[in-house]
Amino acid sequence: ISVTGVQTCALQISAITLEGLGVRRALARSWRLTKGSGFRLLGAQLLIWAVIGLASLVLLAPIGWAFDIAGGLIWPNGPTTAEAEWYGAGRTVVLSVVTAVLGAFGLVVQTVCAALFYLDGRMRLEALDLTLGRYVDERQRGVAVADPFPGGGAA
């Protein structure tokens, strides 16, 4: 992870999905929107990763502990080899499913944050907030106006 890498690729996916740009134009767009904000974006992204990782640990560890305690209560003298294999397989399956669910949730959070970083960059650089406000006001008055996200957004 580097500041240049974050600056180059941080907002590329958002530019592709919201503006409908190609890969090269999206890379150039991401570079322009993040110029001078590399450390801020890197710090925010690292903070998001740390919070998601910590939340996953806090939610996943007690489940593993519960399985360990339950195994001790079910087999106080130790399980047989077959029982230990079944217990290990069941524990692995449950922890894998919980990990997958937490990973999916973390991916959604990271994707939403990336989209917010993209909108923040556009608001800081291009005054997108004013453009969106004008768009909403004119649409409410019945004036036909151009879409602020002409190549992408919701279909």
Description of the molecule:
Helix 1 (3-9) crosses helix 3 (23-34). With 155 residues, the protein is mainly alpha-helical. It has helices at 3-9, 12-19, 23-34, 38-74, 81-126, 128-140. The chain is elongated, with a radius of gyration of 23 Å. The chain is built from six helices and no strands. The mean pLDDT is 86.
Question: How would you summarize the topology of this molecule?
Answer:
Layout: H1 3-9, H2 12-19, H3 23-34, H4 38-74, H5 81-126, H6 128-140
Helix pairs in contact: 1-3, 1-4, 2-3, 4-5
Please describe the structure with a list of short key phrases separated by commas or semicolons.
single chain; 155 residues; 79% helix; 0% strand
Structural class by SSE content: mainly alpha
Described by its quaternary structure, the protein is single chain
Helix content: over 70%
The total beta strand count reads 0
Q: Quick one: biggest sheet? A: none
What's the tally of helices? 6
* Low-confidence residue ranges: none
Distance between the termini: 34 Å
Compute the CA-based radius of gyration: 23 Å
The shape is elongated
β content, as a range? Answer: under 5%
Average of pLDDT: 86
H/E series, N to C?
A: HHHHHH
Q: What's a concise summary of this model?
A:
With 155 residues, this protein is mostly helical. It has six helices and no strands.
